[in-house]
Amino acid sequence: MSKKIDASPTKDFFVRMITRDITLEDCILDLLDNCIDGAGKDLERKGISHSEDSLYEGYQAKIVVKENSFFIDDNCGGISLDEAIDYAFHFGRRPDAPKDTEFAIGLYGIGMKRAIFKLGNLINISSCTDNECFQVNIDVNHWLEHPKDWDFDLDEVENKESLGTSIKVTELKEAVSREFSDQVFKNTLKRIIARDYSFFIQKGFLVLMDNEPIEPYRFMLRESDEFEPMRHTYIDEEGVEVEIIAGMSGLPPEDISPSQQDDKVEYYGWFVACNDRIVLAGDKTKATVWGDEFPVWHTQYNGFMGIVNFKSSDPSLLPWTTTKREIDLQDAIYKRALHHMKKVTRNYIDYTNERKDSTDEARALEDKAKPKPILELKNRELFRVPSFSGKSKVDMANIQYRVERDRARQVGEQLGSKGMTLTQIGIKTFEYFYSNEVEDE
Fold first, then answer.
1. pLDDT tens series, the chain, 441 aa
2. Per-residue CA distances from 316 to 26, 115, 207, 241, 323 (Å)
3. 273, 279 Cβ separation under 8 angstroms
4. Which residue, 73, 33, 79, is CA-closest to 322?
């Protein structure tokens, strides 16, 4: 006679273990995802199309981060009583759950729970639709003391004027409290929201953090008669819309030594988005195209930016993971998109190699290419760059050596410029030696 094995989950796994898989910043972003999806559901109820340019005008989320508390509040339509009782607090997505809003960015049914458990011990969640309101109070430590009881108590309350959802977390975890008291953490969070929700904010969704509106990072590519960025959209065989935008965002560096810094470097490389939500930001690894048959990322490629955006009314078809910070590299839709991504990347790599022998002419042409918002670019299947391949070339050699930076700076000053790059110093010193020791012979 067979025996039964107890395979039921434990509360401790959800509270203490699964929360380790996600950063504190991404927990907050999960809660912001719910706000945006709430707005999406409210728009569907009103019969408004997802194609509107100012789709989210009037919707907002307020985030307040303090040393002893966290608060997020939205006006995005609220959660119905039935949805709260049957689905919203369930651990994971139930098979009978109602269909998500089209083009949703919340998917797996664990984001809110994982976020609040990571943040603190005392949680208050309240929500109002146009005809009902409720609140849920959770004391995590008390809830853990009853391992077999997975329910939360929900209380109906009087209707409020604001239709939306608010979450307040107090008795924060010690590590969370420490991070929340650090202004660097807050500034980083603002920067991530500005970047990863850029497309939503540009469509009217207002995100306030500590009562200050967050301005979206505006993705720009340079365009001119000589430089034409790629903007190509196709429908994958799975029915997912794939848009690829790529080109020259910043000017290629004059000095390609690895020690050279560029304050825009985090915005170079590949960005991967799902339903307009940035998942990979400025990726320079094998997760996109860099490495294997392609070179690993190098300073030489600074200036390149590519964005691939996967869109579907069924978010389960998109190639993201539960943290929304990784891509399923085995996903067939993503693999097919990589073919296009590699092609445009190769185009830029070849250009940066070719321009080495015509740097003055290349720089003159690059300076004429002016930044343009990517949403204003025309559709083009190819990224066009100028070519210098028709010119007769001299066999060139690269010379590289290491010296103390202070000594190099002193040489630059003697050559007439404190701001001279290391490459320029190397060329000038070589030319000096050549003219004095070689040409005189």
1. 788 887 777 878 877 777 787 899 999 999 999 999 999 999 988 887 766 678 899 999 999 999 999 999 999 999 999 988 887 887 766 666 666 667 788 765 678 888 999 999 999 999 999 889 999 999 999 999 988 888 899 999 987 777 899 999 999 999 999 999 999 999 999 999 999 999 999 999 999 999 999 999 999 999 999 999 999 999 999 999 999 999 999 999 887 666 666 778 999 999 999 999 999 999 999 999 998 788 999 999 999 999 999 999 998 899 998 888 899 999 999 999 999 999 999 999 999 999 988 888 999 999 999 999 999 999 999 999 998 865 545 566 667 778 888 888 888 888 777 667 777 787 788 777 777 777 655
2. 19, 21, 26, 13, 14
3. yes
4. 33
What is the SS3 assignment for 65?
Answer: strand
Question: Is 208 strand, coil or helix?
Answer: strand
Could you identify the residue written with the tokens 């329910």?
Answer: 151
Place of tokens 């320029």: 424
Angstrom distance (rounded) from CA 132 to CA 157: 8
Question: Strand 304-311 vs strand 269-274: parallel, antiparallel, or unpaired?
Answer: parallel
Tokens of residue 414, six digits: 């003697």
Q: Is 235 helix (H, G, I), strand (E, B) or coil?
A: strand
Q: What are phi and psi of 149, to 5 degrees?
A: -100, 110
**Integer Cα distance of 421 and 255 in angstroms:** 6
- The residue type of 66 is K
